[in-house]
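Protein modeling request. Please complete all fields; requests missing the sequence field cannot be processed.
Requester role: graduate student
Desired output: 3D structure, token encoding
Chains: 1
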Amino acid sequence: MKQRIITALILAPLAVLAIFELSFPYFLLVLAAVTVIGFWEWAQFTGSKSRYLAMIPTLIAFAVSYIVIPSDIMSMNIVATEHLFMLVIATIWWIVASGLAITYPRSTVTWEDSKLSRQLFGMLTLIPFFWSIVLLRAQDISANPYYGGKLVLFVCLIVWAADSGAYFAGKSFGKRKMAPKVSPNKTIEGLLGGIVTAFIVGLGANHFFELSFSSTGTMMLIMAVTVVISVLGDLVESMFKRVAGIKDSSNIIPGHGGMLDRIDSLTAAFPVFTLLYFTL
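Delivered output (280 residues):
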């Protein structure tokens, strides 16, 4: 626990600095590096004998996304049809993936023996994660360079708050398991505690950041959906690790495991939040 706390105290300020202080091109490079590390860790979930070969299809799909999705800074200020399509597909994936996690292990008969399915799942998890963060970071960047950074940090804060709130509420009041075959420690009571904590942190952050939502009710709805899907996103990665027979996605972050272990909730939260933010 001590090592986890020390690592978190180092990584959190670095993440905030990257969000607000890096120029947009350098921010893209850092985020792309995080995503590629995610590809590397996901490769072990595919069942392939070679992780290098397993990464190739995902890297190709990532490169193609740069060609298909408008990615210059001016285009990113306007949510195009391609952006919305990508976000809708990602949201559908997370609904389906959540169902797979909740019904585990029965659901594994549909995909466990398919390397192609596992490859596709990685693409649907990590590529929209990258683009949704980029879309948020680019918002109003010409008139207000920090506004997009505030949006990105807002999502991180409510997800982190939900994770902490769920942990303590689950420890204190947890009885009804969400998906005992995947993660025995996650409970309905923990989820509710996480939502309440996220609301408190989100309302405070929104007041401080002065973000633009159509109404307070809409913001609360977006936060609630984002938090629920983030918790389910954590379950989804736990499911894939169980099927692959591994505890952590890697050991590159002392006390925290791998990159996917740290961003699993965010990979689900960002695409869903971004879609709702731009459509509600």
